[in-house]
Amino acid sequence: MGRLQKILIPFLGLVLAFGFYSSRENFKPEMLRGKRVIVTGAGTGIGEQMAYHLARMGAHVLVTARTEAKLQKVVEQCLQLGAASARYVSGSMEDTAFAEHVVKEAQNLLGGLDMLILNHIGKSYFGYFDGDVGHVQRLLQINFLSYVAMTASALPMLKDSGGSIVVVSSMAGKVGFPLTVPYSATKFALDGFFSSLRQEFSMQSVNVSITLCILGFINTEAAVKATADVILMSPAPKEECALEIIKGGALRQREVYYRYASTKIPLLLRDWAADLLDYLIRKHYNMENFKNN
Ligand SMILES: NC(=O)c1ccc[n+]([C@@H]2O[C@H](COP(=O)([O-])OP(=O)(O)OC[C@H]3O[C@@H](n4cnc5c(N)ncnc54)[C@H](OP(=O)(O)O)[C@@H]3O)[C@@H](O)[C@H]2O)c1
Ligand SMILES: *[C@@H]1O[C@H](CO)[C@@H](O)[C@H](O)[C@H]1NC(C)=O
After folding, report:
1. Is 183 noted as a catalytic residue in this protein?
2. pLDDT for residue 14
3. Could you tell me if residue 111 is left (phi over 0), alpha (psi between -120 and 50 degrees) or otherwise beta?
4. Domain containing 145 — which CATH number?
5. Which of 52, 88, 147, 183 is catalytic?
6. What domain range includes position 134?
7. Is pLDDT at 1 greater than 60 in this prediction?
8. Ligand 1 mutation pick, 120, 221, 243, max ligand atoms within 8 A of CB
9. Does residue 202 come out as left (phi exceeding 0), alpha (psi in the -120 to 50 range) or beta?
10. How many domains is the chain partitioned into structurally?
11. Angle 129-258-12 (CA atoms, 0-180°, nearest 5)?
């Protein structure tokens, strides 16, 4: 036991240090210049910030969400920041046909696709599981099945370009989190689908990368409002988060952890000390401030 630990701990340290430093260093904003990118859920939050970063890097951006007025502003801002082009398509991902329509628009307007960034989420509740099965079904449609539909329709274009799929997930998609049961379920589903698909791409020599992003608490308006005063953690900035996601996608990384210290490190406990990790997560909830809604 003692000897095993002596070997294992430095080894783990090396693996982590290697993973941390190997890719981050050689990202260049020029990697995105002229690239054709779809960003979903880009009217607000992290998606909006990703659109701005891509614009500064000189990409062609196609953004989508439901609220047209917000998308118009995002497109305007993208053009000012230097996007090669910026357009939007508005509609709801509750509808599979709409998800497929967005991909077709990339074909029609941009003639192809280099990166598909799947980021949108439907509204859920922050509270104990209320037994509403219909809600779980709707959320699976928005947070999971629309991702599957967009991936399936975009695959021919992504194969042509040797492109990338970037999937925005969460700590809640790797380990159980209380008060977000339906949300957590949809995020776990993404891991199963995209991690399996990555294996098949490798076996079939399909040169399309899949990057799964494991995010901690981020300071978007939606997240901060929903979890107000219950989660005892300071949220990380959405601007930097958005940049780390794009970097990971451009470098064709398997997964992105942001912030690294509050996501990857705790997750190391998951397989060996699951109860301890569960306990540590519960400790970050201040239930005295919780009002079930
Ligand atoms: N913020 C965090 O703490 C955090 C933590 C871990 C992971 N994440 C992940 O990061 C991603 C972005 O989160 P965020 O905090 O930036 O969220 P957000 O600000 O709430 O943005 C969600 C986006 O999705 C769109 N949307 C909502 N319902 C939709 C629907 N039915 N059809 C199509 N689009 C819809 C919204 O615009 P409309 O309402 O106009 O449609 C908005 O543009 C999500 O995948 C989330 O799970 C966030
Ligand atoms: C896969 O695609 C990437 C990016 O388009 C390219 O740099 C790389 O050379 C391709 N790899 C193979 C094996 O074709």
Report:
1. yes
2. 77
3. left
4. 3.40.50.720
5. 183
6. 29-285
7. no
8. 120
9. alpha
10. 1
11. 105
